Amino acid sequence: MTKRPFLGWFASPSILIAFGIAASFLAIVQYSFRANIPGALDPGGFTLENFTTLWKAIYGDAFLNTVLLCLWTAVFTLLIGYPLAYAMVRARSVRLRSAILLISLTPLFLGEIVRTYSWMIVLGNRGFLNAALMQMGLIDRPIPFMFTMTGVVIALVHFTLPIVVVMLAAGLSHIDRNLERAATSLGAGRVRVFLTVTLPLSIPGIVAATSTAFAWTFSAFATPQMIGGGQVQTISTLVYQVGFASFNFPLAASLSLTGLLFTVAVLAIFNTGIRRLERIGGH
Amino acid sequence: MRKSLLDHLLDWAGRIVLIAILAFVLLPFVVVAIASFNDGAILSFPPREWSWRWYANAFQYRDFGAGLTNSLKIAVFGATIALIAGAGFAYVLDRYEFRFKNTLNGILMSPLIIPNFTIGLGLLILSAAASLPRNLWLVVATHVVIVMPFVVRSVYVSLQNFERRFEQAAESLGGSPWHVLRTITLPLLAPGLASGGLFAAILSFNEFTASLFVVNQSTQTLPVAMYNYVREYADPTLAAVSVIYVLAVAVILLIVHKFFRLEKVLNVE
Amino acid sequence: MSSETRNDAAVQIDGVSKSFSGTVALEPIWLKIRRGEFLTLLGPSGCGKTTLLNLIAGFLEADEGELFIDRELVTQVPPHQREIGIVFQNYALFPHMTVAQNVAYGLRTRRVSKAETAERVAEALALVKLQDFADRRPRQLSGGQQQRVALARALVIRPRVLLLDEPFSALDRNLRTAMQVELREIQTRLGLTTVFVTHDQNEALSMSDRIAVMSQGRVRQIGAPDDIYDRPANLFVSTFVGDANLFDATLQGVQGGAAELIVGGAPLPVETYQEDLPEPGPVTLFVRPEQCRLTGAEEQGAVPAIVALSVYQGSYAELHLDCAAARGGRIMLRVPAAKALPAGIPVGIALPRTGPAIYAVEDADKEVA
Ligand SMILES: Nc1ncnc2c1ncn2[C@@H]1O[C@H](COP(=O)(O)OP(=O)(O)OP(=O)(O)O)[C@@H](O)[C@H]1O
Ligand SMILES: [Mg+2]
């Protein structure tokens, strides 16, 4: 009896793709240990120099900026995303639910460029926000949003919000409503029901959303590049600059590799921290 | 049932917060729509004069047309390949035990954590090292790597919810494994496969960062063409493009919502 | 095993066993299912009924042992070549096909001609009285109708064996009874070898030619319904099938074919159908409620008890009695509803001299279902 009749047919394409992924990863590892020969595209001999270069201040700053961006973005996205997800799952009218769903999820399918460009128009010195504030007489000189961390965080929150809402809503929608009804019947008010039942039970969703928000922000390029305009350097913008402005691909590779190891480390720490939290949440 | 004052306050606070958040989500799109009709090459709010000229400009700019063609080609090829490979892998993942299953799964899912700029850089270096041409297929390959985890996940969920009894009944009635696959499994999985493929196509169409690393002048995608435009020109042409983009996506989503119900596709029911 | 004994078996299971990652679902089982027989697998949840059915159908591969269908060794034959009809609890009708297409499925896989397919589909639908529903989709049918389609779909291929896994458990009581009768009629008419899985003992007793009572991956007794009910082979079968009253008793010895028992302080000679009796000493006496007779409290030789609760059941009433001599202190009797007694009344129970069974005490500790 052939018990796995389709194994060969179905697995082969993905095995091919997996080899491609593994090979490109190895290419990065390999390049990050090679010397750069200015003016030549092929790398030179083996060296550790790329990694010692990374100790320079501009690279350290880029790491710090990236971490700060990830942190602020995660915090604000969760604060804004949770009420939205809650309303999306719990709104009584089907139309309202559909409307919230479409409004909050359409940006997910718009890509980074359209969204970032739109924010450039909102946040620019002659942009919508400053024009509106000046018209109202609240300020008399434009507040600089472009080329600042604040501006980048605002746009990044907007960028990560949809995926965070999806993950929070998935978590919330799987909470058994009867648990909340039980708590109400036992005399708990709405606030107490939320704090003692709903919120603890949605911890897995919050955790999943936070780690996704982190990964998305870390990997964002267009937003820090276009809104940061070179003033807010992150790992992603630096990799691009080192690669395509200086044509130093070995250094770009080592920067990418370090960034990747950093992501993996953060997500790993995150995951172990989460197990503790989940125990509190009763999972 | 009478509501307490606190309940009323909560209701109102909730409504205000919800409206404020939705306004934040919608704000940039409203603003970009206003800006796209601004007659002057330099933005001002509110616009002094209105015109359609930037829409005309958007349609005449050669790179956008070429980028759109490239993006559509890449999305179709990329999503098809990702769907075939991803659905096949989801199937063996769900049904079979085999050696290196976890390794294979780990590698194929890794693009979910590996930043797109790293994926782009890696494939660029790989293609250079293997002296592969930097043509459209390199972009397609990059997109397959990036969108495949999403396809695998969505098909895998469909398979997990799939009623195995249907296949067993068909088998007991004399259907060979291929026949059962063709007449039972595939037709019943069709909605999941369609939404997975569509999702992959949309993701591919929007992909920017990794593409930026692997495209050249002749293979640049629409998002890359748009990015290059902003770097060169400050006029609101891109605002016009953005408006068209948003409307197109919203229409597609509305259609998808009608047929598949987004709540189900995104598992937020 | 001689080839002759194999001859009359439609299905022969020779030492087939199955474990799932270490946990044993089915101990090695030997079982012969006769041609045209209606055999029921009866047992509590998790005892391995579905596992056994899946092994016969070929959806699972046996860890060891051999399986024959019509004398053909099929242990290695994949399900689609076994010529078996199967009906599932949730029907498993293909939702993307009409009723007729569902029924025709097994004929299409066999490349039966169009004309013959149409004829046989119509015939099968007529058999289950669904001629007029051929073009409906499964979701437009009631549960009972869906069940009939599933039956027609399995029958139309003229299977060598029909397997049914709790087919009626989702139906309401009246419909279930109707379907039971209908299935039995069709099965007898076609002379179809049938293996039927249920955990409903009434269903098993009323439908089967033979019942195999299972527990924890083993067949504990196999026999005709009256064998199972009147002459259970062990305490598990006694208590799982039908109601049982158990008494703590002392076995003093066997004299002239009768076992000398002391129950509730009074001597009781009992003739049992059992061939092996436990060692003299403390034993457990098993008596069906209908074998016990209610008497006055003072009656000679009766076991004393007190009415604890009377439960009205329409045509009769269940009297639950507190009884010091009973295992667990409780027994149950059925009396005509008019003769129900209020709680607190002392009564006596006269035990029968023939019929009950005697088991070792340690059996009672682990085997009561
Ligand atoms: N695929 C499986 N993997 C692991 N264990 C299994 C699997 N299938 C069955 N089992 C275990 O094998 C035992 C027998 O299961 P089986 O389904 O045969 O029981 P059953 O008699 O049909 O019960 P029920 O009346 O509830 O349907 C159970 O303990 C069950 O947990
Ligand atoms: Mg079962």
UniProtKB/TrEMBL annotation, chain A:
**Pfam families cross-referenced by the UniProt entry:** BPD_transp_1
Q: Which domain of life is it from?
A: Bacteria
Q: Does the keyword Cell membrane apply?
A: yes
Q: Write out the annotated subcellular location.
A: Cell membrane
**Record SUPFAM superfamilies:** MetI-like
- List membrane-spanning regions: 7-33, 62-87, 99-123, 143-172, 193-216, 249-270
ABC transmembrane type-1 domain location:
63-270
Please give the InterPro entries that the UniProt record associates with this protein: MetI-like, MetI-like_sf
For this UniProt record, give its keywords in alphabetical order, as a comma-separated list: Cell membrane, Membrane, Transmembrane, Transmembrane helix, Transport
Q: Which Gene3D superfamilies match?
A: MetI-like (1.10.3720.10)
Its predominant location is: membrane
**Protein name per the record:** ABC transporter permease
Automatic annotation (TrEMBL), chain B:
Record's keyword terms, sorted: Cell inner membrane, Cell membrane, Membrane, Transmembrane, Transmembrane helix, Transport
Q: Which residues form the ABC transmembrane type-1 domain?
A: 68-256
Main subcellular localization, coarse class? Answer: membrane
Please give, as recorded in its UniProt entry, the membrane topology of this protein. Multi-pass membrane protein
Q: Which domain of life is it from?
A: Bacteria
Regions that span the bilayer: 12-37, 74-93, 105-130, 136-159, 180-205, 237-256
What family is it from?
Answer: Belongs to the binding-protein-dependent transport system permease family.
Q: What is this protein called?
A: ABC transporter permease
Tell me the organism: Paracoccus albicereus
Automatic annotation (TrEMBL), chain C:
Q: What is this protein called?
A: Spermidine/putrescine import ATP-binding protein PotA
Question: What are the alphabetically sorted keywords of the record?
Answer: ATP-binding, Cell membrane, Membrane, Nucleotide-binding, Translocase, Transport
Q: Which gene encodes it?
A: potA
Q: Which domain of life is it from?
A: Bacteria
The record's top EC class is translocase
Family per record? Belongs to the ABC transporter superfamily. Spermidine/putrescine importer (TC 3.A.1.11.1) family.
The reaction(s) catalysed by this protein are: ATP + H2O + polyamine-[polyamine-binding protein]Side 1 = ADP + phosphate + polyamineSide 2 + [polyamine-binding protein]Side 1
Tell me any Pfam family this protein matches. Answer: TOBE_2
Give the taxonomic lineage as stored in the record.
Bacteria, Pseudomonadati, Pseudomonadota, Alphaproteobacteria, Rhodobacterales
Relate the protein's function as given in its record: Part of the ABC transporter complex PotABCD involved in spermidine/putrescine import. Responsible for energy coupling to the transport system.
Domain ABC transporter stretches: 11-241
Task: Look up keyword Nucleotide-binding and say if it applies.
Answer: yes
Per UniProt, subunit arrangement is:
The complex is composed of two ATP-binding proteins (PotA), two transmembrane proteins (PotB and PotC) and a solute-binding protein (PotD).
Tell me one GO molecular function of this protein.
Answer: ATP binding
EC number in record: 7.6.2.11
